[in-house]
Amino acid sequence: MITFPILDAFAKNWWVLLIRGILAVLFGIMAFTLPGLTLVTLVLLYGFYSFADGLAAIWVGLQGRAWWFVLLGILGMIVGIFTFVYPGITAVALLYLIAVWALFRGVFEIATAIQLRKEINNEWMLVIAGILSIIFGAALVANPAAGALAVVWIIGAYAFVFGLMMIVLAFRLRGLSGHLEKFA
């Protein structure tokens, strides 16, 4: 009989994924419904989420002998701890990382569009995407407060959608747990 330790671990510990998903959804909702909170508070909430998510990943990884999950969990816990110790630095670093990424991406999108000009028509769409990326990056650098709020909303949207996916997966695995025991 073929066994899949990671599937078995996920199925037996479906509730860990459910908790992980619920925490992510709650974080996402808070990011949108409480915009009056300071960015530092939201960064600390993210740090808590990252730490809890790391613990959950370690738990499941150890149960399923999936060492890459353990590594991801350890990294998540490190990010959470760093966020608690240096919340201001975390917020500013994240904002500028996104800004620099957008600026570089915009430049490379425009350069790619110029090269594609020889091969396809309507490469102007990639030029516009590049210009928008550059404008976005410059706006983040020029107005970090508005950029910080936008980043909080992006993180909140990601956490909400990720959390929903984890909740759905948890319930699918819950139903699978009994089926796997029949085959053991």
Biggest beta-sheet profile: none
Radius of gyration: 21 Å
Structural domain count: 1
Please mark out the parts with pLDDT under 50 across 5 or more consecutive residues, or reply none: none
> What separation lies between the terminal Cα atoms?
8 Å
Please provide the ordered H/E string of secondary-structure elements: HHHHHHH
Strand percent estimate: under 5%
Total strands: the figure is 0
Percent range of helical residues:
over 70%
**Average pLDDT over all residues:** 83
From the spread of the alpha carbons, the general shape counts as globular
Structural class: mainly alpha
Number of helices: 7
Write the layout of secondary structure elements.
Elements: H1 5-12, H2 14-33, H3 39-63, H4 67-85, H5 87-116, H6 124-142, H7 144-183
Helix pairs in contact: 1-7, 2-3, 2-7, 3-4, 3-5, 4-5, 5-6, 5-7, 6-7
Q: How does this model look, in words?
A:
This protein is mainly alpha-helical and 184 residues long. The chain contains seven helices and no strands. It has one domain (5-183). Helices cover 88% and strands 0% of the residues. α2 (14-33) packs antiparallel against α7 (144-183) and α6 crosses α7 (144-183).
